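Support case: user asked for a sample of complex input and structure output to validate their parser. Sending the pair below.
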Amino acid sequence: MSPSSDRRCAPQAEDLVDALVQTSFAIMAALTRVAAENDLSLTQLRVLAILADRRLRMTALADFLGLEKSTMSGLVDRAEKRGLMQRTPSVDDGRAVDAFLTSAGRELVAKGRADVALSLTPLMERLTSTEQRRLQDLLERLLGEPAL
Amino acid sequence: MSPSSDRRCAPQAEDLVDALVQTSFAIMAALTRVAAENDLSLTQLRVLAILADRRLRMTALADFLGLEKSTMSGLVDRAEKRGLMQRTPSVDDGRAVDAFLTSAGRELVAKGRADVALSLTPLMERLTSTEQRRLQDLLERLLGEPAL
DNA sequence: TATTGTTATACTCTATAACTATA
DNA sequence: TATAGTTATAGAGTATAACAATA
């Protein structure tokens, strides 16, 4: 169990895991705080962000978020009740339903995005512009090849 | 509303925000999956990880996680019921309660940490060793000065 | 009086299973 | 028969408020 015992992975890989995980928790805390300040849960803010520039079927939205379609029904129910989203039957498929933002929803997600950027600025300013670009590049490569 | 309209922040800062947020959601998804594979919620796994090498009072644990103490009571109740944690009255302060892991809890968190590292390895392998070190350094600086 | 923790309550998030309607 | 979505149900996570015990 000692840190110097043999491992499957190189030691510095473990430290990178820790850095990634701790950074992610810090980012999630910031997002959760911004969401709460706008009377949203983190999941609701995420739904609004995904729908900011497109309309999606319930199943596509659920897949995007990694949630069950029944979970999606509840999320959209509550957002619709608050006037942030709407549903319409799909014209292509009588079974399907498209979800999209109302103007109130679009306004809220725009404010949310701006608040998130403001909230993360103090963190990002710990790095120089060059380092910020380098970090962005490394993260994009970690996520997968950027939109080919 | 156009992407090229004037902003408070430099354009590339917005892209770094997106990269940080998207990376964080990807990491959280991996952590949530690992937790679920071990019959834990993400929060439970996090509690176990925090207590892996220390014992903390309920309030300290709640502060660590950014949760209310009443939320902490429920989380510890359920973990205790599963034999992963224990509570004992503090010797220093008759009002306080110390929380700590059982041996089953320590075993589970060790497996969880290993699973997380394995789960993130494919992502990290998209970068060279040098890049991994650079990324780790940048993230640690983003989080704040590393333990002085 | 202030602090530590628990309990009561309510709401959101989440999944599973059963169901309806359409393909 | 298979797919899209909703509803019913249950449990976890979360916060607020009220409470007991201790400092």
